[in-house]
C-alpha cells in the first residue's frame, strides 16, 4: 500500500499534522509513505517509520511548485492521498482514495480541523520520531541536568515576547527552582540567533539551538522538564515531544494554535484575539501559570519527563 501525505510548509502546522500521520501508520502497518512538505518541515519526518521518501516542495512563482510535485508523484498509482493543503494536485494523481482538507479561516483548534479529514474525533495528538543517534546528541548537550527550556523566538515580530521578559522570568524561576538549569532553543539562521542572544547571555544557559536537526531538537526537548516559549514551531514540537509546555500568545490565535499534548497550557496577552500586543503579557502572569501547571500536573512538571 502506498500513501501520499501532503502537509504544511510551516513547521507548526506540520507538527500538528503528525498525529494524523501516526494514526495512518498504525491503521495501515504494511503501508509505505511519501511525505510532501516545505523545506523547514522536512526534517520532522526523518525518523518516521515506513517512510519511502520526503518530497520537499519549495515555493515557486505562478504555483509551479505544485507542478514539480505532480511530476514527482504522477508515476505512482497511490492507494490513498491525504492532502492537508487543499491543493488541486491530489485530483490530478491516480489514487484509489483521497482525503482533502479544505482551506479558509475556520473557528476552533487547527488540530480538530486536521482530524476531520479522516473523521477522527477527538483528533490524534501530535508525535515526534527520534532515533538513538538523536538521543545521544541530546545527552551530550544537556547531560543529566534537570532542564527548563525557553523558546524566545518566532517567525514574526508580533509573536515575540520581549527578551528582557525571558531574562526576568528566569531570574524568578531560578529562585523558585534553584536546582534547575536553563536551555535556550531557537531555529537556524542569524535572525533567530539574534533574537535568542539576550537569553543565551544568561549565565549558565545551555545553547540548544540553531545547529541541530529537528529530530535532535525533539530528542533534547524530550529530556527537558518544562518548555515555555512563544507561539512557534518549537512550541508545537515541545508539546508533541511530551514535554510540559506553556505557550505565550499575543496577536496570534490561541483558539486555533494553542499547543496540543499531554501536559500543555497557554497564556495570552490582554486584549482581543488577533490584536493583543504580546508585550502586555507580564512575567508575573507567566510565573503564576507555571506554578499553576506544577500544581495541576504534579510530578510530571518540573521533573524529568519521560
UniProtKB/TrEMBL annotation:
Q: What CDD domains does the annotation carry?
A: GT9_LPS_heptosyltransferase
- Name the domain of life this protein comes from: Bacteria
Q: Does the keyword Glycosyltransferase apply?
A: yes
Q: Which Gene3D superfamilies match?
A: Glycogen Phosphorylase B (3.40.50.2000)
Q: Which key words are in the record?
A: Glycosyltransferase, Transferase
Q: Where is the signal peptide?
A: none
The answer on whether this UniProt entry bears the keyword Transferase reads yes
Give the PANTHER family listed for this entry. Answer: TETRAACYLDISACCHARIDE 4'-KINASE-RELATED
Q: What name has this protein been given in UniProt?
A: Glycosyltransferase family 9 protein
